[in-house]
Amino acid sequence: MAFFTTNDGVSIHYEDVGAGKPLVMIHGWDQSGRAFCNNVPALSRKYRVITVDMRGHGDSGKPAYGYHMERLSKDLEELLEHLDLQDVTLFGWSMGCCVIYGYWDLFRDKRLSKIILCGEAPLNLIQEDNPHGFIDYPGLAALADSIVKAPDTVIPGFAKGMFNKEENFEKYGDMISSESLKFPPKECAFLLKHHCYTDWRDVIPTITLPTLILAEYAETGALVKKEANQWNHDHIPGSEMVTFDSGHLLFLEEPERFNAVVSAFMDR
């Protein structure tokens, strides 16, 4: 296990495997780098694969501060500096995409060569001008409140909702739930709200790096609507989009195809 310390004193856990072009994989809200257990072994045969647990998540430090998208993006920038990485492909899943949006907003293409976005709306909050978000105001408030009050009940249920197939939940559900429960409930709920409130629709169209969008299209387990993925594709010039018949955890449910698609994009 490897760690570095951010400029505000937080210990960040990361794993660094393989050699070659660097691929940095950023997990979603309340998860960790362990979510990519079906991807790192295969991808690290060709590339240098770095997974990171964002602050509060996984085995990283759990301070009572810093749970804003801009701070997570700064943590990512400090990781790239710490490892002195160049020509990085950034992969973001779910909230990990927002970490990338924040990085782009603050640092543009510093140390980067490509971007892969997997399963995230440009704005998660449903409102009049954004009908294709993930959740509305009352639903978000209720979910955040329930996480604080009953995380042991709410988190496994949320985890199950990300899977397309029951057998995959039976295989990976305990891991996903246990990683979620490492995040202190109060801070977990706070970050959920900040994540869902943040609107990236002004930033996304400014992305100029080669970008691949991986979209979940299954009827079950897909938290991000087709229209949201299409919006990203339509507003990032020259982007590509590949669809998967999986839920929100498409890299866990279709690992062979996911690994092949990522590899083909990185090799161009």
Features:
268 residues; alpha/beta; Rossmann fold; 8-stranded mixed β-sheet; 10 helices; 8 strands; 17% strand
In short:
This protein is α/β, with parallel strands linked by helices and 268 residues long. The chain has helices at residues 40-43, 69-83, 95-107, 137-149, 151-160, 166-180, 185-197, 226-235, 250-253, 255-267, and strands at 2-5, 11-17, 22-26, 48-52, 88-93, 112-118, 211-216, 240-244.
Please explain how this structure is put together.
- With about 270 residues, the chain is α/β, with parallel strands linked by helices.
- It has a single domain (about 1-265), classed as Rossmann fold, CATH 3.40.50.1820.
- It is about 40% helix and about 15% strand.
- The chain is built from ten helices and eight strands.
- The protein has helices at about 40-45, 70-85, 95-105, 135-150, 150-160, 165-180, 185-195, 225-235, 250-255, 255-265, and strands at about 1-5, 10-15, 20-25, 50, 90-95, 110-120, 210-215, 240-245.
- Strands 1-2-4-3-5-6-7-8 form an eight-stranded mixed sheet, with helices on both faces.
- Helix 2 (about 70-85) crosses helix 3, helix 4 (about 135-150) packs antiparallel against helix 7 and helix 5 packs antiparallel against helix 6.
- The chain is globular.
- The protein starts with a strand and ends with a helix.
